[in-house]
Amino acid sequence: xxxxxxxxxxxxxxxxxxxxxxxxxxxxxxxxxxxxxxxxxxxxxxxxxxxxxxxxxxxxxxxxxxxxxxxxxxxxxxxxxxxxxxxxxxxxxxxxxxxxxxxxxxxxxxxxxxxxxxxxxxxxxxxxxxxxxxxxxxxxxxxxxxxxxxxxxxxxxxxxxxxxxxxxxxxxxxxxxxxxxxxxxxxxxxxxxxxxxxxxxxxxxxxxxxxxxxxxxxxxxxxxxxxxxxxxxxxxxxxxxxxxxxxxxxxxxxxxxxxxxxxxxxxxxxxxxxxxxxxxxxxxxxxxxxxxxxxxxxxxxxxxxxxxxxxxxxxxxxxxxxxxxxxxxxxxxxxxxxxxxxxxxxxxxxxxxxxxxxxxxxxxxxxxxxxxxxxxxxxxxxxxxxxxxxxxxxxxxxxxxxxxxxxxxxxxxxxxxxxxxxxxxxxxxxxxxxxxxxxxxxxxxxxxxxxxxxxxxxxxxxxxxxxxxxxxxxxxxxxxxxxxxxxxxxxxxxxxxxxx
Length: 500
Hints:
This protein has helices at about 1-10, 15-30, 125-130, 135-140, and strands at about 35, 80-85, 95-100, 155-160, 165, 170, 175, 185-190, 190-195, 200, 215-220, 220-225, 230, 235, 240, 245, 250-255, 265, 275-280, 290, 295, 310-320, 325-330, 330-335, 335-340, 345-355, 370-375, 385, 405, 410, 415-420, 425-440, 445-450, 460-470. By secondary structure, the protein is mainly beta. It has two domains: about 1-30 and about 200-470, no CATH class; about 35-155, no CATH class. The protein is globular.
């Protein structure tokens, strides 16, 4: 992707200034009231304007007051998008809100055709097709419009390869599960999404025993945040949020133009640490990539307890013959353990390996090497692995930039063993934070070679051995993909603030 490389290299010397300008530009905007998902269209479809809190009356010609889609609000101004209401009868497929312009029946308005007006039939089946009786008139009637014909406010978003006007797939901000205890889900199946400002999945409103969850499942399409972080698990005065991003296909590209910290798992802010959040990395049978300027875990220490808050997990799935590594343009930041600035604060950066199939082994039973994080991807910015925290009580807060296990009970230092079980066999790998990942095709995540310790700045797993589970009692089979809020983290004992 030569255009991308050229753009990113051009920003290498003035990235901080560009980020500052982007922030000033955002602050200068007076964002109107948000547009919220209300599901009044009785379907999952994103592009059914009845599902958003905008005018429902059809008027002609299109303009403010006409049915509107995000990023519009009722006045026709670009604004925040919020998905907060939880599930309901409208979620007929269990996928939550579905962003899928390739298949959404409301994305384009078909010619009026009597054969499209299904008489009778099962109501649920009609809903699943976006063809409930309540939808027929606006979908097929004479006043129907496709989404490209609707009104959108003035304004542009500049991505890595193009500048686009606001429109059906060019958005302003996206918040999920804000000031609520509901769980909300968005499934992205196709499309080319460009988001110009803040994106927070699992923003706020939760507390211990009264959790919330925001979740995105990306099955396809292209999602780009040119100048903003992708935050999973944030906080406000109303409480903290828990967020999950489940990558299953397509491409995700975070901070392609400017900014820092990139994907933040358990982000938090001045109001406190984020909740327990997770980035799930599948290896789909197809092209695409996950690429970010930085990848940061447990950004905020204030109020972090390392159990319910300040917990970030990255979960890699072995499938289709391997793992798909995350391309980190600059730094991988692992904040793990007790903090030296905030008394009593503990953060946790965790790693989980799930085997969906058996890895290949050599004649000695040694499994194949697995790539996880390519740090300083393409060697443009001199990225490193960094972070802070004290895991072992030695009062050194700069030597524990490592992962812990998914339950937080085991710390994975350089050369330690990471294990996973499939089909009655336990497979072991040695983890290194100084490996090297080379690529055959970066835009389709085709890996060339994986090298071990002392060869680079990447996180990889080097095959060690395998054995029947009977010889390794106590290692469980991998479970379902859920948000794991571990209650068993062993916290460090009473400690004093470090003195000079």
